[in-house]
Amino acid sequence: MQIEQPTEIGPVQKRALLSSFIGWMFDGFETSTLILVGAAAVLTLLDSPKPDEVRLAVGAALGSTLMGWAVGGTIGSILADYIGRRKMLMISIGGYCAFTALTALSHSLTALIAFRFLTGMFLGSEWSTGTALVAETWPASARAKALGIMQSGYGFGFFLAAGLWLFIQPYGGADAWRWMFLIGVLPAFFLIYIRREVGESKLWLEAVHGSAASNEASHTKRRFSLIEMFDDRRVLTHSFAALVIATVTVSVFYGISALTGPYIGAIAAKQGLTASSWASISALVYNGGAIIGYVAAGFIADAIGRKPYMLLMFLGSIASGLLMYLAPQSLLIALCCVFVLGVFTLGVFSWMPIYLPELFQTRIRSTASGVVFNLARLASFPLPILTAFLFSTLGGYQATVLSLASLYVLAIAALLLLPETRGKALPA
């Protein structure tokens, strides 16, 4: 079945991009907020906790959020292929706004961890839904650029969280962390805009409702999207290869981001500077580089092709790891290397919203994209243990970063199994 796809950029396309960008930006805000205020929250919820207890509690809250993200992201991705992109986008934004508000009202550590899991469930379902909506709404000539811009919303969300925390922390007292989570409720007001101004994907309407009418006429039922995804050998091959690349992408980012702050902080301390402040600055530098990588992705992918763009970013990630390995332990030089790492090892995430929608049919697009993205998070869970082992075995940050970046050799091998999709219509 050939479905007519958009050829122009108008209000419909801009509204879809804006709504998905805002949703993904607040996903970034939410995740970054927990990282920034986690320790402050635990100190108010526990009675005189020891440093190890604080780290364990913050880790539990982060792990709960990520687990909720993986579970909710998978469920929400499947639902988006049944109830629609627009409706699922509204559910995900409304859900994480509600549970963010409850997080701000947490009266115990158990409540905080539980509310973070529930918040994570709705955070996880926004990405695949927004990606499918933008991909199916924008014309092929600008689709990659729009999706790269959408992906940059996560980086802007981090900067928003960091800037607000710098402002709120000195004046909010012990409960300043609660105000940060309350700010996360603001996207709820944006739901009015989505309901009034954002239309449903016509590709999804025609693909699903058109086939539903055909199934009704022939007395057959639509197969479950997850089964349909794994029933086609070609789709299964593409899914496996994409999952390998996504797992490398997520794993390298988690490993590098966890080690970079302490490394920069240690260099700053040797120069008589405040370690915690420079550790925070390194996170800003890393995300600043990532935003450049996010936004540039669509332009590069349109210019040279999807696979050459991905190969360029994978090789760039390896090269950036080598650059950090060879760099002298000078604060300025190290921060420059962190910026380059951000461009490649975090900016590379744009390959997923650009490329994954072009691999799968409309009926399973959200399901397949969400499953790949979220299974990669689950597969990356052993990374903190591996990173700690590498750090102690290899003797420090620089060698560990190079080892992590070298994992992109696996991504390059998996890329050989995937097709080029530049200039092609989305699979109907």
Question: Could you characterize the architecture of this molecule?
Answer:
With about 425 residues, this protein is mainly alpha-helical. Helix content is about 80%, strand content about 0%. The chain has 18 helices and no strands. The longest helix is centred in the middle third of the chain and has 38 residues, at about 235-270.
Summarize the SSE layout with pairings.
Layout: H1 11-45, H2 51-83, H3 85-104, H4 109-137, H5 143-172, H6 176-183, H7 187-197, H8 202-217, H9 225-231, H10 233-270, H11 275-304, H12 306-326, H13 331-346, H14 351-355, H15 365-379, H16 383-394, H17 397-405, H18 408-415
Helix pairs in contact: 1-2, 1-4, 1-5, 1-6, 1-7, 2-3, 2-4, 2-15, 3-4, 3-6, 3-7, 4-5, 4-15, 5-6, 5-11, 10-11, 10-13, 10-15, 10-17, 10-18, 11-12, 11-13, 12-13, 12-17, 12-18, 16-17
The ordered H/E elements are HHHHHHHHHHHHHHHHHH
- Low-confidence segments: none
Computed CA radius of gyration, to the nearest angstrom: 21 Å
Count of individual beta strands: 0
* Helical residues, percent: over 70%
Strand content of the residues, in percent? under 5%
- Can you count the helices? 18
From the N-terminal CA to the C-terminal CA, the straight-line distance is: 7 Å
Mean pLDDT: 89
Overall structural class, as computed from helix and strand content, comes to mainly alpha
Globally, the shape reads globular
Largest sheet: none
